[in-house]
Structure formats: structure tokens, C-alpha cells
Design a protein that fits this description.
single chain, alpha/beta, eight-stranded mixed β-sheet, six-stranded mixed β-sheet, globular, binds flavin-adenine dinucleotide, binds P-hydroxybenzoic acid
């Protein structure tokens, strides 16, 4: 058994926990990061791929952008496809030069782990029995078992960056939390394929057979998604069936379709909107997926996690330099304001682009009219573009 102390105890080494640890380091604030999975698992998990302009700028500012600058793919537009045609939305023109960058979450996590290791500050993988205690006191505690030894870490603050299934949110008394939730009657079947992307930019498509998305990870790897049932049995999807469905839903009448190649990864992702309010209880602050989940159609989840921890680091920085709790006290309300804007955008993109069994022919025609309006109105395209590249952090 060991007993140590730190300023901020961070639970979870996903993008939120790792980014927070690095931001705090730059403020001269000590932290310990506990992660229950292995380093290998955390790096290999295939998830987000789209970084907002603000996320990219922040990574450069804090010195973790070297590989991003070389390997990230800057996209100044996206395509919206329906009725057999693709329509380009010029993100950069509509937002004064802002854009998105395609760079896998795995790569972000790899860069942040390397940055953490360079600081020499503690990061424990495969920590089991992680628990938080005394969260309303000014000596909250983290405990875990790592390398066969029980550790107790006395902290001044705790950051719950442990994702949707973590232990931090459930450690807040349920009567103190208000939860807002919506499940969708569909999911995404996602694949990675060894195929050079046949479009330079992402394609979001609504087809009578459902939604499909063309994305990528690198000049030789294509990432594709298909709307499917929430309980879809992946064994019913041999590669040929996946490609046939992708060709049907993404192919346009000008002859464009995704290039095909060996499928190297397959998975089903459920879709959910979820917000827990407030994002603070005592000296425990929630950030990222621990506090909120968005359906992936707006590409907002990772970016929202980064925005939360940027805000939390500013607040802790203010506290440790001046003793003031002003920004800490405002953290939950300000983070929730951004969260709800991202929720609205993600819900809107999702409902515009997916088909539901409960929809009738009227609903489908209304979706097509919405898409038609979107791609023909400068105002509508500007609204999509400013949300997609990311609203300002403040
Ligand atoms: P997580 O990444 O979930 O990290 C939490 C960490 O805490 C994990 O490593 C977990 O192992 C650890 N943990 C959990 N419990 C414990 C415990 N008890 N003790 C210690 N550690 C614990 N977002 C985008 O912005 N753009 C996209 O294009 C996009 N696409 C997506 C596509 C898919 C298929 C999926 C699934 C998600 C996508 N997202 C996207 C969402 C994005 O991946 C998440 O929002 C992001 O991972 C949130 O980061 P986080 O650090 O808050 O949580
Ligand atoms: C991805 O490339 O994984 C991706 C892209 C856009 C989204 C969601 C996921 O909206």
C-alpha cells in the first residue's frame, strides 16, 4: 500500500484525461492520471476522426501538433449527397478560412501519451478497483490497485474523464444529477478498409436505404459507415454485403463511388444523445463523454471533450495562481452551454440524414426538402459550416 498526494487526480486516459493532464502541466499544476485499460487498448480503439479548427489550433499551441502538421488531412469542404447527386459545402469560404482536419483519435491519444511521458508525471495504465472518495471535501481521494499494490492518492481536485461507462458520474448522488437522454432507433456499422480514398473530402449521404458516410484516415485508408439496426448482428455482414450496401447508398449518378479494398476492422456503434447536469459536484469535475454523449453524425464528441478540459484547465490555472474560484464556479454552466449547442447540431444532422422505421413517406419528403434547402441556401450552408468547423471556445 502506498500513499501519495497530487493537486488534480484524473480518472481516464482518453482524449479528455490526457489533454487535461498536459494543459495542467503547462500551468505548472501536478496531476496523476489513472486508466483501467492497457496502453495498447487505449491507442488501438478506433473512434473519432474529425478535428475541429479549434482542436487543431490548441494541439499546435500546446506543443503536441508536430505529427498532426505532417499527417493530418486538412479538409476545406464536405459533400452532402442525396437524390443521386453530391453537393459540396465550402467550409473555408463560409467561415472565413476555418476547416476541419482528419486525424484519427488514436493518433491524438498517441501524441498525448508521448507528451505525458516526456513530462515524467504519473500515468498508470491497467489500474483496477479505481474509486473516488470524499468528493465534497477539500481532500478528495483516489484509490486503485496498480502493479499489484493498492495506491491512495490525496488530491485537491478530481477530474472525471472516464467516459460514459466510468465510475465518476455514478459516484455523484443521483438526486444531485439531472439526466437528459435520447436513444435513436438505429446504429452505425463502421469499417476501415485498405483503399485509397476516392474523394478528397467526406461524403454524408441520405439514401432510401438509409444513411452512409464516406470518410478516411490516411491517403491509403478509407473509413466508411452504414446506418444499421441498434442490435445489428455483425456476423450477418460479410464483406461483399457491406460493399454492395455502401455502393448502393453512396454511389452518385456521375459515377462516383467509394474505392474498395481489404476490410481490416468492423464494428457497430450505438447512437445516443445524453447530458448529465451539472458537470460538477463538490471538488469533482466531469469532462468529455463522462458528462455527455452526442450521436457521431456531427463529429463533435472528441472536440467537445477537448473544449471541456481546456475550460477546466483555465479554471484550475486561475485557482492555483490567484486562489479565486470564479472560473471553477462557472465551469459547469459554461461547458453545458457549449454541450447543448453541440447536442442540437448533432441531433439535427442525425435526424436530417437517417431513415427511421417510424417515418412515413411525408417524413422522407420533408428530409429531402431540408437537404435541398440546405445545399441551395447560403444562410443554411453557413449555419452548418460554422457548427461543423466548431464554434469559438469561449
Ligand atoms: P473516452 O475516450 O471514452 O475515454 C475515457 C477513458 O476512461 C477510457 O480510456 C476508459 O478506458 C477510461 N475509464 C473508464 N472507466 C474507468 C475507470 N473506472 N478507471 C479508470 N479509467 C477508466 N468524436 C468526434 O469529435 N469526431 C468524430 O468524428 C467522432 N467519431 C466517432 C466515431 C465512433 C465510431 C465513436 C464510437 C465515437 C466517435 N466520436 C467522435 C466520439 C469520441 O470518440 C468520444 O467523444 C471521445 O472518445 C471522448 O473522449 P473522452 O476522453 O471523454 O472519453
Ligand atoms: C470518422 O472519420 O470516423 C467520422 C467522420 C465524420 C463523422 C463521424 C466519424 O461525423
Amino acid at each position: 500500500m502506498t500513499r501519495t498526494r497530487t493537486q488534480v487526480g484524473i480518472v481516464g486516459a482518453g482524449p479528455a484525461g490526457l489533454m487535461l493532464g498536459h494543459l495542467l502541466h503547462l500551468h505548472g499544476i501536478d496531476s496523476v492520471i489513472l486508466e483501467d485499460r492497457s496502453e495498447h487498448y487505449v491507442i488501438d480503439r478506433v473512434r473519432a476522426g474529425v478535428l475541429e479548427q479549434g482542436t487543431v489550433d490548441l494541439m499546435h499551441e500546446i506543443g503536441v501538433g508536430a505529427r498532426l502538421a505532417v499527417e493530418g488531412l486538412r479538409h476545406e469542404g464536405i459533400y452532402i449527397a442525396f437524390g443521386g447527386a453530391r453537393h459540396r459545402i465550402d467550409l473555408a469560404r463560409l467561415t472565413g478560412g476555418r476547416a476541419i482536419t482528419v486525424y484519427g483519435q488514436n493518433e491524438v491519444v498517441k501524441d498525448l501519451i508521448a507528451a505525458r511521458e516526456a513530462t515524467g508525471r504519473p500515468l498508470y495504465f491497467e489500474a483496477s478497483e479505481v474509486a473516488v472518495d470524499d468528493i465534497t471535501s477539500n481532500r478528495p481521494r483516489l484509490t486503485c490497485r496498480a502493479d499489484g499494490v493498492m495506491h491512495t492518492i490525496d488530491c485537491e481536485f478530481l477530474a472525471g474523464c472516464d467516459g460514459f461507462h466510468g465510475i465518476c458520474r455514478p459516484s455523484i448522488p443521483s438526486e444531485q444529477l439531472r439526466v437528459y437522454e435520447r436513444e435513436y432507433p438505429f446504429a452505425w456499422l463502421g469499417i476501415l478498409a485498405n483503399a485509397a480514398p476516392s474523394s478528397d473530402e467526406l461524403v454524408y449521404s441520405l439514401h432510401e436505404r438509409g444513411f452512409a458516410l464516406f470518410s478516411m484516415r490516411s491517403p491509403s485508408v478509407t473509413r466508411l459507415y452504414l446506418q444499421c439496426a441498434p442490435d445489428e448482428d455483425i456476423t450477418q455482414w460479410p464483406d461483399d454485403r457491406i460493399w454492395a450496401e455502401l455502393r448502393a447508398r453512396l454511389g452518385t449518378t456521375d459515377g462516383w463511388m467509394p474505392a474498395e479494398g481489404a476490410i481490416t476492422q468492423k464494428g457497430v456503434t450505438p447512437m445516443r444523445s445524453f447530458v448529465a447536469e451539472p458537470m460538477q459536484y463538490g471538488n469533482l469535475f466531469l469532462a468529455g463523454d463522462a458528462a455527455h454523449i452526442v450521436p457521431p453524425t456531427g463529429a463533435k464528441g472528441l472536440n467537445l471533450a477537448v473544449a471541456d478540459v481546456w475550460r477546466l484547465a483555465q479554471a484550475l490555472g486561475e485557482f492555483y495562481t490567484s486562489g479565486r474560484r470564479h472560473l471553477l464556479d462557472r465551469y459547469s454552466a459554461e461547458a453545458l452551454r457549449r454541450t447543448w449547442r453541440a447536442q442540437r447540431f448533432s441531433w439535427w444532422m442525425t435526424s436530417m440524414l437517417h431513415r427511421s422505421d417510424s417515418d412515413n413517406p411525408f417524413d422522407h419528403r420533408r428530409q429531402l426538402a431540408e437537404l435541398d434547402y440546405l445545399v441551395s441556401s447560403e444562410a443554411a450552408m453557413t449555419s452548418l459550416a460554422e457548427n461543423y468547423v466548431g464554434l469559438p471556445l469561449l
